[in-house]
Amino acid sequence: LSQGTCGAANSSGVRSCNVGTIAANGSVTLTFTLTGTTVGQEYVSASASGNGLDVDGGNSAARSITVLPISDMRVTLAESADPVSVDSLFQYIATITNNGPDTDEFQVVIPVSGAMISGATSTLGGCSIASNTATCVGVGLSAGSSASVTVELQSDVPGIATATATVSSYYRDT
User: How many helices (H) and strands (E) would you count in the chain?
Assistant: First the structure.
């Protein structure tokens, strides 16, 4: 507020401010910090009135603000067996957990070296494989819930197979 005073918001969330006299062609700036409490669209409007004659009528403005979900996605990676024999099938299993507070979508990327990916599945969505990397998406992972991604592998030469799993949230991950 560049001049004047504002009262507390009423039960409907309306706040009134008295900015006093504004010089001709002058302006007053009011800045409010809002906290979205519900996922979806929040609407904010402002209007001005005065004691004098108003000749242009442009005394109100409105904006909508999209409140996005917040999630706290975590991923762990486990293997079905270690060691494995050459030409045997084995799996990496990624467990994705949404610690909340909101339902969200996720993408998990699992690049693998030392073994060839033969398939990938997700309990909440689909997967694709390119350049020996499994990329899987999940939709509707509720707060406090988990989903899993299973990557099927086979190694045809002795050595060490390695994989990493990285999860990202569709909306905002804390």
Answer: 0, 15
